[in-house]
Write a structure and sequence with these properties.
binds pyridoxal-5'-phosphate, alpha/beta, 32% helix, 2 domains, Lyase, Ornithine Decarboxylase, Chain A, domain 1, eight-stranded parallel beta barrel, elongated
Length: 377
Amino acid sequence: MTARRLHSIARRHGTPVVVIDHDIIRRNYASFRKHLPRVQVYYAVKANPAPEIISTLYKAGASFDVASLPEFMLVYENIKRLPARQRQEFIWDKIVYANPIKPRETLQELDQYKPLVTYDNRAELAKIRRFAPHAGLALRLRVPNTGSIVELSSKFGCDPGEAVDLIEEAFEAGLTVEAVSFHVGSQCTNFENFVQALNIAAAVIREAASRGRQIKILDIGGGFPVPYDRHVRPFSALARRINAEIGRLFPAGMQILAEPGRFLVATAAAAVARVIGKAVRDGKTCYYIDDSVYHTFSGIIFDHCQYRLKAFKKGPLEICSVFGQTCDGLDTISHSEQLPGLEIEDLVYSENIGAYASASATWFNGFPPAKVVHVNL
Ligand SMILES: *Cc1c(COP(=O)(O)O)cnc(C)c1O
């Protein structure tokens, strides 16, 4: 979207505002499918759970990865509202519940939908057997997360050495393991993580088959990186590596799915905020804007992401600090922004802020989350 259009939307709707461009979401989805044609897309809803995004991706052909009961119901209810011919009856085609740890009430509630759920340990297996006996299972493997911006391997995933035993135990308990899954860590710019994970998954699936247990689905998770800066190599290069490994390691009949979150939505949104205060401290200009790290810029804290700020105004750039609107010192958006001289009421914007930003915004200090405007719906 052009800066001019963004500016006019912010003028019309007021600030703080987040503008989500659905043409970009559709383009990202098409790019994923083009480069990984064997892989079905399950959008990881937690990256941005806006119902409008769920509808756009559903219409484009995507399925969904959810990680809580409210997310599951959000997708389920959205799909139910669409015309019947666009709906699929079989829930696994559309939703995978990919949080390996689930409270028992959640399992009890999910069971009626015969969901596909992940697990990575024995205690979870016992819970699933008791509270969701109609679920299909996906075993989550621990795989290298080296260099990924958000590390997950210390929290989730069974040791590959235990994997086949956990698959056996599920079948012996009368359950069915449909899939093997992994997650290489979010914003994974180290493509070797995918290569190693695919090799680990292939070895587990092969050994399970040798014990008579056929795994039909491979779930390669999320982590597909977004070009926040110039150092991120293009998605097409990652896709080439993944396609080569998939072709070499898995039979043509293996169903393959992925759970991209960030990749589909990060570049689709921009945030516009207004300068509400200005001071000079230790010789440096400090701007205060009407958004914060407790709101749209929450990704700075929770997602280890730095968003560059830009001004609509032209002029010589100077190094400055930018703070959020709340009273907390943690609410620092940047100590090293380059902006032209700004005045109170001037607008600034940040691009590539569609993933793990609005999604984790709070009401801290009494400030509501920014308004969200959808364009090209
Ligand atoms: C968060 C998450 C994703 C999405 O990760 P991205 O890095 O945003 O692609 C996918 N799968 C699981 C299990 C997740 O927890």
